[in-house]
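Lecture notes, unit on protein representations.

Consider one protein chain, 240 amino acids long.
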Amino acid sequence: MSIQHLSPLSLYFQLKESIIANILNNTWPPDTMIPSENELCKMYGVSRVTVRKALDELVQDDYIFRLQGKGTFVKRKALDQKLSKFYSFSEELKKHNMNEEAQVISFEILTAEERIQEQLNLKNDKRVIRVKRVRSVMDRPYGLESSFIPYSLIPGLTREKVSSDGLYNSLREAGLYPVRARETFKAVTLHNPIAKLLKAKTGDAAIYLTRNAYLHHNVPIEFCESIILGSVFSYTIELS
């Protein structure tokens, strides 16, 4: 779409619509870098002020995002996760051909505080394995996750194992198969240092999610607390 300088429509609006068209027709696919401000000026014959105003609105409208020192990229639409069945973040992302990575930033064996004991129904051995991970998709962090696993169920679990195979794969290899989960979630805003870890801004919208996962016979296997960027996931509840 070219810019019509004699059109009654403002130049920045025409530029904005042209960029949206390139995104929607997949000329610029999700996660690809769009031309720089200087390149857009030359391509469309408009000023830098016009380009910047168009890009600022596209950022606000969630079409693009900026990475400092790297450029401006096409933003993926939030993935809609239906909450009617057991699921895994990793598996859902793979369905969308998105490369996901979970970086273990902390792995500890500790005595659970009272609220964690209640969530995991710990009676005698109150030790848990706490695994903290930053989850990323296409090199973009989207969530901070803290998982608590009863130590007595898998005392041989290691940081290296979780890093290489993932948490749920490690559980399954040990003969522990989560079969159902209960989740609660609420809207929150990001605060430091979580915003910094997720390379987001303080005050950005996020989802605080807790998950209780169970083996057969309602045996608790995991209590997890996550902060998920609202720009990456949305949730749908199916009622029947």
